[in-house]
Amino acid sequence: MTDHILVLDAGTTSTRAMLFGRDGRCVASKAKPLTQHYPRPGEVEHDAAEIWEYTRTAAAAMIERAGGADRIAAIGIANQRETVVFWSRRTGEPLARAIVWQDRRTAAICRDLREKGLEDAVQARTGLLLDPYFSGTKIGWALEHWPQLADAGDDLAIGTVESWLLWKLTGGDHATDATNASRTLLMGLGSGAWDDGLLDLFGVPRASLPRITDNVGELGHTRCFGGAIPVTAMAGDQQAATIGQACLSRGEAKATFGTGAFILANAGTSPPSSRNRLLATVLWQLDNRRTYAIEGSIFVAGSLIQWLRDSLNLLSDADESDGLARSVADNGGVYLVPALSGIGAPWWQPDARAAISGLSFSATRAHVVRAALESMAHQCHDLKAAFAADGADWATLRIDGGMVANDWMAQDIADMLDLTVERPAFAETTALGVAMLTGVGCGWFADLEEAAAMRGAVECFEPAIDGVTRDRRLTGWRDAVARVMETSR
Ligand code: ADP
Questions:
Q1: Most buried in the list 18, 60, 170, 312, measured by CB within 10 Å?
Q2: Could you tell me if residue 86 is inside a domain?
Q3: In this predicted model, what pLDDT tens digit does every residue of 28-46 receive, in sequence order?
Q4: Rounded to the nearest 5 degrees, what angle is found at the Cα of 54, between the Cα atoms of 440 and 430?
């Protein structure tokens, strides 16, 4: 009986394997933290051999737990996006460290390209901005600076993390899925194919790149764990989470509040273009037809709570923030703009610095903590306006990630957005989204709509404040942001 799906989630800080049943229940999981390498300030690398080794051992443990390879219907892969891996086709071993999405070493390359006036053209073709975050400049940099890559010639294989894992699982199949490819700066958003002009611009040889596939299909078979198991889905983590939140119709949006916050809204089947410095990206590709998303990122979310706890000692643990926020009637005029590492969409002001404003003798730590939590709803509100201006307004907001354990914050987001906010009981939406895709791929479900039953129960938070209170809050927030922007110019 093939009664389980195995999800491999190769994240930034850990690698996990999870077993899912048809009902969406996660029956077992195993995780191992990944070593982070910081060779120089702003540089972040991973050892791709370690990513594979941890994935392989976690997968083997889950397969044993399920009762053997013949109990696994199919495997699906979710991964940290944009991180690039370089390996030898001949040996199947890495030729260099993987350059991680957080790595800023190509900031100067991006600045040069922007100064040459190329950003609009790149954005029009890829939906992305010229930022070191994306893979294209990382690949160009590595080919220029790491001689073993240039020397490898035809032996060189390049790919994002899912394509590395697929290669290792299948013993040499070189493919990437359209969601991951859409984060490289090398794929035409409308065409779903590598773009010669972009390959030239970033100095990337087409022959080193994988073929671009659907997110679902017969992507290969693995024999690493005994009998053959099909791999039937791959997707980048944020797209997977959007699918795991069942944002299957235009206007449905999800926000994941982890260390930072990532918001994606289903934007339908035509490639969107943002005039408000949001990103346009592939949400999924099925039968060679793409559905798109608009994406906005908040750099500082849960990390703000960690900072209040560890650097300011205002909290003993993150959970305490809920009770403290409730202990005061309002923010007492205190606002916190959490630009601790610049401020992201829709402002994109890397030099902005955080500020706590409106303090008086009556302000307490509860007001500051409440202002910190309120800043999440305020930032969501501003992003919603940017999404709406780009024609991708949110009809609902589905929330997940470690921070949404905070009931007070979930309610505050509903209040400030004036929108129903849904929180699923099962918070591992990335793994669930890949389980849904994998289930479609192996025939458990006819389509994603049917697979969405895996999502299970949700809790709804309904807006419960009046418009006057909401407007007063937003006016205070706008003033606080304006002051931060003024001082960062
Ligand atoms: P990541 O996947 O980025 O590692 P998680 O989704 O695990 O992050 O979320 C962890 C973050 O959530 C931490 O930064 C922590 O400060 C925050 N967090 C956890 N519980 C709460 C809470 N009750 N209230 C507010 N923030 C919380």
A1: 18
A2: yes
A3: 999 999 998 999 888 889 9
A4: 35
